[in-house]
């Protein structure tokens, strides 16, 4: 029931008619466009003011008169009669609101800010419009028509989900979008045969979670998290990244807590392999990039040796996340032609670190896991010829809201870090480029 005959009533009526709702209109006079709508859809229209009995047999009433008192009266009666009410632009007197809609029939996306900001809802809607192809509705119908067949042919729900994901990842959406249905059916048949053969053959994705901020996850990483049946994750994975994991997925923490022994690598490998052999989609989620200082290589080797499907999804490694936050270029035409990522048991006198090589000019050093070893690092580098005035940056919790940056030179960085009470995880960047940090951030 639409009460009101102006522009706002016209807008609401249009939305309701688009959704296939049966509508009636009451208003002393009608806006021209509204009259046209009433005509076009042969709607019931009564040309008179609102009466209490108008709410009989009604599910939803739109109070769109320009008289606030009448709108309040409609609200009172609607509440009394248990009728949903939308009072235009009046959240306090509405029990129903109109979300912004992206309509790709039968796919509908509704965006609601619970009435707080229609402008924000419109913006979000515009963004969703751009990422939802116009053929997504057709795709939904295509998939819907084949659900029963897939259910018959793949007994296991996990296999079905994996199959449907593979359909969406392959050429079928494009073929359906282009109306090439014969080719889509052919691709569908091939996927189905493959799914039946490998119904119980899982996949392990070795996924880089980046330095902590979920915005730095790659799209592929996000996709893996959304599809996972089980996620094995490390210590440095932030809660915000964990929040991106599919809700029904099992989560297994396999990291090392400070000062405690972590789970044996062989045990982690076994768990990954067992789950994959059970046909699950397994994600091994590691901080930064999985193949940088994270024993990802060992896991990869162990998995490959069993013949399980493995994929590696790269992540933003701490060196890059830290440099970006600090605005430090890692290479520079004049001062750093190469960059080294290092980590080492620096204080171990027997380790075979080539200090002279590290102290060489015109390169940038990035040290992972180096905070505790900072005094050794600076002492050894100076002993091997590095200038005491070489700039050095200590970056902690890069990409987190409480990230910190301490800049100094080799001879004073230890003091500075102590006075700032820096906490990990921390990455150290060393070289002439550090001096350019502030300049780079300004230019950005
Ligand atoms: C075991 S390593 C793993 C590195 C990881 N695979 C990568 O690519 O970043 C852990 C070290 O990464 C660095 N790190 C990880 N996250 C960081 C962050 N948000 N800010 C600064 N350093 C970080 C620290 O040096 C930490 O000790």
Q: Mean pLDDT across all residues, rounded?
A: 90
Which small compounds were modeled alongside the protein? S-adenosylmethionine
* Structure class: alpha/beta
Content of β-strand: 15-25%
- The geometry reads as elongated
Q: What's the arrangement of strands in the largest beta sheet?
A: 3-2-1-4-5
Helix content: 25-40%
Number of strands: 17
Biggest pleated sheet: 5 strands, parallel
- The oligomeric state of the chains shown is single chain
Terminal Cα separation, in Å?
55 Å
Radius of gyration from the CA trace?
Answer: 31 Å
Number of helices, counting only DSSP H or I runs of 4 residues or more: 18
Ranges with pLDDT <50 over ≥5 residues?
439-444
Report on this model:
Helix 7 (157-169) packs across helix 9. Residues 439-444 have low confidence and may be disordered. The protein is built from 18 helices and 17 strands. By secondary structure, it is an alpha/beta fold. Bound molecules: S-adenosylmethionine. Residues 211-212, 236, 286-289, 292-294, 317-318, 321-322, 368-369, 395-399, 424-427 line the site of S-adenosylmethionine. The site of S-adenosylmethionine (SAM) has 25 residues, from helix 14, strand 15 and strand 17.
Short description:
By secondary structure, the chain is an alpha/beta fold.
Topology:
Layout lengths: L1 E2 L3 H12 L5 E3 L5 H9 L3 E3 L13 E4 L4 H14 L2 E4 L12 E5 L2 E5 L6 H14 L4 H10 L1 H7 L3 H13 L2 H6 L3 H17 L5 E6 L10 H9 L2 E4 L5 H4 L7 E4 L11 H13 L3 E6 L9 H10 L3 E5 L4 H9 L11 E5 L12 H4 L4 E6 L5 H10 L7 E6 L7 E6 L3 H8 L5 E5 L6 H7 L1
Parallel strand pairs: 1-2, 1-4, 2-3, 4-5, 8-11, 8-12, 9-10, 9-11, 13-14
Antiparallel strand pairs: 6-7, 14-17, 15-16, 15-17
The structure holds S-adenosylmethionine.
């Amino acid at each position: 029931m639409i009460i009101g005959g102006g522009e706002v009533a016209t807008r609401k009526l249009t939305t309701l008619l688009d959704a296939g709702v049966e509508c009636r209109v009451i208003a002393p006079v009608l806006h021209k466009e509204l009259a046209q709508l009433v005509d076009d859809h042969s709607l019931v229209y009564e040309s008179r003011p609102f009466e209490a009995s108008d709410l009989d047999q009604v599910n939803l009433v739109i109070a769109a008169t320009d008289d606030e008192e009448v709108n309040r009266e409609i609200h009172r009666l609607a509440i009394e009669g248990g009728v949903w009410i939308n009072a235009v632009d009046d959240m306090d007197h509405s029990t129903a609101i109109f979300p912004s809609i992206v309509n790709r029939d039968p796919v509908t996306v509704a965006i609601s800010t619970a009435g707080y900001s229609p402008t924000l809802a419109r913006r979000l809607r515009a963004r969703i419009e751009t990422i939802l192809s116009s053929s997504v509705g057709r795709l939904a119908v295509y998939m819907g028509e084949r659900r029963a067949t897939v259910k018959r042919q793949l007994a296991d729900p996990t296999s079905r989900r994996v199959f449907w994901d593979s359909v969406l990842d392959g050429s079928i959406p494009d073929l359906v979008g282009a109306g090439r249905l014969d080719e889509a059916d052919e691709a569908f048949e091939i996927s189905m045969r493959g799914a039946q053969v490998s119904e119980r053959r899982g996949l392990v994705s070795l996924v880089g979670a980046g330095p902590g901020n979920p915005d730095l996850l790659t799209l592929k990483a996000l996709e893996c998290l959304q599809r996972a049946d089980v996620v094995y994750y490390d210590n440095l994975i932030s809660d915000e990244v964990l929040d991106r994991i599919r809700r029904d997925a099992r989560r297994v923490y396999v990291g090392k807590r400070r000062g405690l022994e972590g789970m044996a690598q062989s045990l982690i490998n076994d768990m990954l392999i067992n789950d994959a052999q059970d046909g699950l989609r397994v994600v091994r989620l590691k901080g930064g990039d999985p193949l940088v200082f994270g024993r990802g290589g060992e896991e990869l080797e162990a998995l490959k040796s069993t013949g399980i499907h493995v994929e590696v999804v790269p992540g933003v490694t701490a060196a890059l996340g830290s440099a970006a936050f600090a605005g430090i270029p890692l290479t520079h035409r004049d001062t750093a032609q190469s960059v080294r990522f290092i980590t080492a048991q620096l204080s171990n006198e027997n380790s075979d670190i080539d200090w002279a090589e590290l102290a060489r000019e015109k390169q940038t050093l990035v040290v992972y896991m180096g905070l505790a070893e900072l005094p050794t690092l600076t002492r050894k580098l100076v002993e091997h010829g590095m200038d005491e005035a070489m700039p050095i940056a200590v970056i902690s919790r890069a990409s987190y809201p409480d990230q910190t940056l301490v800049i100094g030179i080799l001879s004073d960085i230890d003091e500075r870090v102590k006075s700032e009470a820096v906490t990990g995880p921390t990455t150290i960047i060393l070289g002439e480029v550090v001096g350019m940090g502030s300049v780079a951030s300004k230019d950005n």
